[in-house]
Q: What sequence folds into this?
C-alpha cells in the first residue's frame, strides 16, 4: 500500500455545530505534506462501530469510545492516535489483540494541565469565586468574612507523579510550598529533579492542604479517593481533580463539601459527564466546577494535535511511533503485517 492509499479517519466530535474544526489548521498541513488522505468519520456517535472504522488505516480520536466490537475482524487499522493522554474509553486489550497501536500525547498536555491545577489552587486559596459574587451582589464590605489562604509553607500533595505531576511541582516551586506525592510506580530517583517527598496515600490525605488528583483512570485507581480517604482530610484542605471523575468517590466528596468537613474543591471531571442538572454539587458555594475543559487552550489543542498526527505519520511510513500505551502489540504479527502494507 502506498501513502496515497493510507486513509485516516478523524472522529466527528472534533467538529463544531457549523461543521468547522480547529483541527483543520493542524492536521491539514501535516497530513498533506506527508501525502496522506484524511477525513472526518460520518455519524457522530459516542461509540465507534465496526463499520465506521473498517476502511481506515489510522484513527485520530478525541472522545469516542472504542470497544472489542469496534475492532473485531479488522485487518486494516494499524493505529489509534488519542488526542490527549486519557484512554479509559478505549479497550487497550482489544487493541493489542487485533494488532492496533494506541498512542497518546503526554507532552501536549503536561503544561496546560499543570497550569490548570495551579489555576484551581490559586482560585480556591484566594476565594476568587466567592469574592466575585460579593461584588456582583453589592456586598463589598463582606469580604472581611472570607479570608484567603497564603501558600508559603502549605503542603501541595499530588496523587500521581507522571509528566503532569512533575510539571505541576516545577511550576509551583516559587510559591514556597512543601511538595509531597503518592505514586506506587515511581522511585525517589525519578523525582529528584522536582524535589518532592514520596509518601503513602494515607499520609498525603492527612497532611496536604491541596490534594490534586492527576493519575490515570484504570482498574487500580477507580474509586481510589474513597470516603475513608476523604474523611482523613484536614478541615482546611481542598481537593482538586483534573484527571478523571471516577477516581474520586463523588458522593463522599459531595457529602464532605455539604457538611463543611473540608474547605472546598475544584473539579474539572465528574463520575458522569455531562454532570446531571440536579447534581447537588451545582448548588454548593465551596466548589469550583468546570466542564472537563479547564486545560482547553490553543496551546493544548495544538500540542495534542501535532503529537497525534506525528504518530499517524510515523505508522504511515512503516515506523513505530512514540508514546505507545500498549507496547506489547509491537510483537504482534498482525501489526507487523499491517505496517508492511504501509511501506
A:
Amino acid at each position: 500500500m502506498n501513502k496515497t492509499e493510507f486513509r485516516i479517519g478523524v472522529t466527528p466530535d472534533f467538529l463544531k455545530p457549523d461543521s468547522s474544526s480547529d483541527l483543520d489548521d493542524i492536521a491539514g498541513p501535516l497530513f498533506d505534506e506527508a501525502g496522506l488522505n484524511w477525513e472526518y468519520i460520518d455519524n457522530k456517535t459516542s461509540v465507534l462501530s465496526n463499520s465506521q472504522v473498517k476502511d481506515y488505516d489510522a484513527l485520530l480520536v478525541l472522545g469516542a469510545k472504542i470497544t472489542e466490537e469496534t475492532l473485531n475482524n479488522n485487518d486494516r487499522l494499524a493505529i489509534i492516535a488519542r488526542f490527549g493522554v486519557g484512554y479509559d474509553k478505549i479497550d487497550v486489550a482489544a487493541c493489542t489483540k487485533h494488532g492496533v497501536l494506541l498512542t497518546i500525547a503526554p507532552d501536549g498536555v503536561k503544561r496546560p494541565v499543570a497550569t490548570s491545577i495551579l489555576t484551581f489552587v490559586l482560585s480556591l486559596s484566594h476565594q476568587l469565586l466567592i469574592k466575585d459574587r460579593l461584588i456582583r451582589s453589592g456586598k463589598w464590605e463582606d469580604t472581611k468574612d472570607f479570608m484567603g489562604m497564603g501558600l508559603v509553607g502549605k503542603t501541595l500533595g499530588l496523587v500521581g507523579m507522571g509528566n503532569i505531576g512533575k510539571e505541576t511541582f516545577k511550576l509551583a516551586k516559587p510559591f514556597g510550598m512543601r511538595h509531597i506525592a503518592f505514586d506506587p510506580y515511581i522511585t525517589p530517583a525519578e523525582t529528584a529533579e522536582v524535589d518532592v517527598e514520596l509518601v503513602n496515600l494515607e499520609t498525603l490525605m492527612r497532611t496536604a492542604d491541596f490534594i490534586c488528583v492527576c493519575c490515570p483512570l484504570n482498574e487500580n485507581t477507580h474509586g481510589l479517593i474513597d470516603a475513608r480517604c476523604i474523611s482523613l482530610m484536614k478541615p482546611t484542605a481542598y481537593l482538586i481533580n483534573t484527571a478523571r471523575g471516577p477516581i474520586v468517590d463523588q458522593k463522599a466528596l459531595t457529602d464532605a463539601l455539604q457538611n463543611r468537613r473540608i474547605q472546598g474543591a475544584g473539579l474539572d471531571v465528574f463520575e458522569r459527564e455531562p454532570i446531571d442538572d440536579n447534581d447537588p454539587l451545582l448548588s454548593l458555594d465551596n466548589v469550583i466546577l468546570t466542564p472537563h475543559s479547564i486545560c482547553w487552550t490553543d496551546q493544548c489543542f495544538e500540542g495534542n494535535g501535532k503529537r497525534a498526527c506525528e504518530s499517524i505519520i510515523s505508522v504511515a511510513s512503516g515506523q513505530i511511533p512514540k508514546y505507545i500505551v500498549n507496547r506489547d502489540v509491537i510483537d504482534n504479527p498482525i501489526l507487523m503485517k499491517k505496517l508492511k502494507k504501509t511501506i
Remarks:
- The first strand starts at residue 7 and ends at 10.
- The chain is about 35% helix and 15% strand.
- Residues 106-125 form the longest helix (20 residues).
- The two ends are 7 Å apart (CA to CA).
